[in-house]
């Protein structure tokens, strides 16, 4: 009798294990199917990288306080991007003024920078089968002249801009400031003012994030890409990798304490999202970033 009881217990345990195994496999299958459904529902976003020119920083120390980069110079990229989503196309920054195209590199008064631009934005869009009419929305990381140079090609596009940035652009304070060229974006009249972050398409794939300090309404762009994963376009929260490593703030920033706060928020967000950070002005970052990411 005792032997029969042991056999029954073993049989029961075997049955329980089989049921557990089946339940585990069914649960795993359900989870995988649910993940596939969610993945299939997430719109596919494509990021196109373009060159808006180059900036030779002849006085790199402007990008720090004190004498951090005294006597140094550095070649910087001037990237801009097109983000293609099933529900529309967003242009992020536009590069240096197009009057530079076909000209020799130009050094403005003071000699701090030497700037150049090889191609117009129309030619660059055409290289990926787009025209200016295909751009539905435009947003600048900020309105310094090296980011707004080709903006007036898009007068019909909706312009996403922080209220603080818009107010500064229309204030007396901007007049005579050589970092800005308001006439380069004065054709943008379809304005949506932002007071913080903006989920552009409402699905978490393209999010404008407010990170003020470099200018009154500086912002960065977060993308959820299918293959590249979470990706952050830095705007000018940094200008090159050493800036990021040492959390260095340029002396010409609009608000230095606000910049320092935004840097902490940027790094916390990048870490939480496990995001790839693309520093837009970093020449090495620009070179290693594929022309098309998705």
TrEMBL record:
Has UniProt tagged this entry with the keyword Zinc? yes
InterPro entries, from UniProt? MBL_superfamily_lactonases, Metallo-B-lactamas, RibonucZ/Hydroxyglut_hydro
Which segments constitute the Metallo-beta-lactamase domain?
Answer: 77-281
Concerning PROSITE patterns, the annotation shows: PROKAR_LIPOPROTEIN
Cofactor entry: Zn(2+)
Keywords carried by this UniProt record: Hydrolase, Metal-binding, Zinc
**UniProt-recorded Gene Ontology molecular function terms:** hydrolase activity; metal ion binding
* Coiled coil start-end: none
Q: Which family does it belong to?
A: Belongs to the metallo-beta-lactamase superfamily.
Q: Which PANTHER family match?
A: 102 KBASES UNSTABLE REGION: FROM 1 TO 119443, QUORUM-QUENCHING LACTONASE YTNP-RELATED-RELATED
Report what the protein is called: Metallo-beta-lactamase
């Amino acid at each position: 009798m005792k032997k029969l009881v042991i056999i029954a217990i073993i049989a029961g345990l075997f049955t329980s294990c089989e049921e557990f195994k089946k339940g585990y496999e069914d649960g795993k299958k359900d989870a995988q199917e649910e993940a596939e459904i969610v993945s299939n529902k997430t719109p596919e976003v494509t990021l196109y990288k373009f060159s808006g020119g180059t900036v030779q920083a002849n006085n790199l120390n402007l990008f720090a306080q004190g004498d951090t980069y005294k006597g140094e110079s550095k070649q910087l990229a001037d990237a801009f991007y097109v983000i293609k989503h099933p529900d529309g196309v967003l242009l992020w920054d536009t590069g240096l003024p197009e009057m530079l195209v076909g000209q020799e590199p130009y050094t403005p008064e003071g000699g701090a920078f030497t700037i150049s631009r090889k191609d117009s934005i129309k030619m660059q869009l055409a290289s990926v089968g787009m025209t200016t009419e295909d751009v539905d929305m435009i947003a600048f990381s900020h309105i310094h002249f090296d980011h707004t140079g080709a903006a007036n090609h898009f007068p019909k596009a909706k312009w996403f801009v922080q209220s603080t940035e818009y107010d500064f652009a229309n204030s007396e304070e901007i007049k005579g400031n050589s970092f800005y060229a308001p006439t380069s974006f004065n054709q943008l009249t379809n304005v949506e003012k932002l007071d913080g972050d903006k989920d552009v398409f409402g699905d978490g794939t393209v999010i404008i994030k407010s990170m003020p300090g470099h200018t009154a309404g500086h912002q960065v762009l977060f993308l959820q890409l299918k293959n590249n994963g979470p990706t952050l376009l830095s705007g000018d929260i940094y200008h090159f990798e050493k800036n990021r490593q040492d959390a260095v703030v340029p002396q010409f920033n609009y608000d230095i304490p606000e910049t320092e706060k935004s840097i902490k928020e940027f790094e916390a967000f990048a870490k939480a999202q496990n995001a790839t950070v693309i520093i837009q002005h970093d020449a090495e970052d620009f070179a290693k970033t594929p022309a098309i990411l998705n």
